Amino acid sequence: MTNQTAQNLEELWASILGEAQLNIAPAIFNSFVSRTSLDSIVDNRAIVACSDSMVKSNVEKKAKQELLAALNKRSQKKLDLELIIKKVKAKTLDTGPVGPLFTPPRDEEIVVKEKQLQAGLTPKYTFENYILGGHNNLAHAIAVAVATRPGEQYNPVFFHSGVGLGKTHLLQAIGNNILRNHPATKIIYTTGETFTNELIDAIQSGKAGKKSKYTTNEFRNRYRHADVFLIDDVQFIIGKDATQEELFHTFNSLYMSGKQIVITSDRPPSEFKNLASRITSRFAMGIIADIQKPGFEERVAILRARRDFLGEDISDEIISYIAQNISSNIRELEGAYMQVSVKAHSNNMQPTVTMAAEALGQSYRETKKPTVNINEVLKAVCNYYSVNIPDIKGPRRHKEIVIPRQVAMYLMKEFTETPYIAIGDLLGGRDHTTIMHGAEKIHQKVTEKGKIYTDVANIKQTLGY
């Protein structure tokens, strides 16, 4: 190749990237391969410039063979590929579509992306990358059914779980799936907090004549004319009377029109306090499904999927180690994985179990905070003592009920930042001083290391501590 103008080299490299992209992990391509350029071709050697040493190292290990194959295919001769470190100038290609990398999206893809943005959806949340297991099979099956036939089979739908267990992923996957198949569908995704804030803003602007995102009528029209209404973390509206009133009428309007409603929360409808009964009864009138913590096998599957998506060289042994030690929720599980990955990259070393242990010791264990909520604590206590939740919340003062009730008070305060007043509300509307007394009494019993100490230790273990 004799005519090595900058434009020719740029066009050739663009076509090579388009060819190689099909065989390179997206995360590796976007993070590293895209930061290369074809510097020159000398003596049957293609000199490829990398913007820095990290790019060079990752391209060498994870993309060189794919680039070489594409290079030889495009140049129609056998060339070697040499990587060098050299500042890669940012450039805009206007040479037309030369491969998959530069092929303009189809019109319908643009429409779907615009619709996702308007709906408040994040495209990365799909059914395809949602890891299935015994902890979420039912919720997933319901979500797929809803996405296939919105407003027909299951309506409304209520998903509940603790934090970081995939409620938002599943909720948004419903919306994204519907839009891919039916782009004309009007979908609205919001959260309890956003719904509340937008309502407050609309009301205040109406009273003061100030400019806001919506007027009150526009706010109502936006939500009540949706085909699919997805509301996340609805527990945020607890104690907010105006928001509850608005949501009640929005729910009725959509439901009576046969529109799909999907709701998520950190607790089931039966455990809501300070929420109007007419609202909780509507939440419960459809199908309810909970999402549990993933088991060891599911945690391994989640981490392997993460590794494969990023194209990283982390062994199954390390994956198993992380999965064994992080059992609280998916969010912390993936966070621990990234700590190990970052530590390996920063030290330019192959990750090992020892390195993983160090990474988790430096980050996770020092900053870890309990992630269980008070409802999970209550369930664990009741399961351990074989008592019913209504009895714990009720007025009975028999010993077989009082002890579990006080243990629940103690663990709720130890594991969460929930105020005594809120714990009292959950436990049948008890006064905060009663909660303080009960928690302190169990604290004293625990220091004595008798039966209560053993009971508390066993319950902690069931909660993952």
From TrEMBL:
Keywords: ATP-binding, Cytoplasm, DNA replication, DNA-binding, Lipid-binding, Nucleotide-binding. Pfam families: Bac_DnaA (PF00308), Bac_DnaA_C (PF08299). ATP binds at residues 164, 166-168. Residues 373-442 form the Chromosomal replication initiator DnaA C-terminal domain. Domain I is involved in oligomerization and binding regulators, domain II is flexibile and of varying length in different bacteria, domain III forms the AAA+ region, while domain IV binds dsDNA. One of its GO terms (biological process) is DNA replication initiation. This is Chromosomal replication initiator protein DnaA. GO terms for cellular component: cytoplasm; plasma membrane. Residues 153-289 form the AAA+ ATPase domain. InterPro entries: AAA+_ATPase, Chromosome_initiator_DnaA, Chromosome_initiator_DnaA-like, Chromosome_initiator_DnaA_CS, DnaA_C, DnaA_dom, DnaA_N_sf, P-loop_NTPase. It comes from the Bacteria. Residues 1-116 are annotated as: Domain I, interacts with DnaA modulators. It is found in: Cytoplasm. Plays an essential role in the initiation and regulation of chromosomal replication. ATP-DnaA binds to the origin of replication (oriC) to initiate formation of the DNA replication initiation complex once per cell cycle. Binds the DnaA box (a 9 base pair repeat at the origin) and separates the double-stranded (ds)DNA. Forms a right-handed helical filament on oriC DNA; dsDNA binds to the exterior of the filament while single-stranded (ss)DNA is stabiized in the filament's interior. One of its GO terms (molecular function) is lipid binding. Coiled coil: none annotated. Belongs to the DnaA family. Residues 345-465 are annotated as: Domain IV, binds dsDNA. Oligomerizes as a right-handed, spiral filament on DNA at oriC.
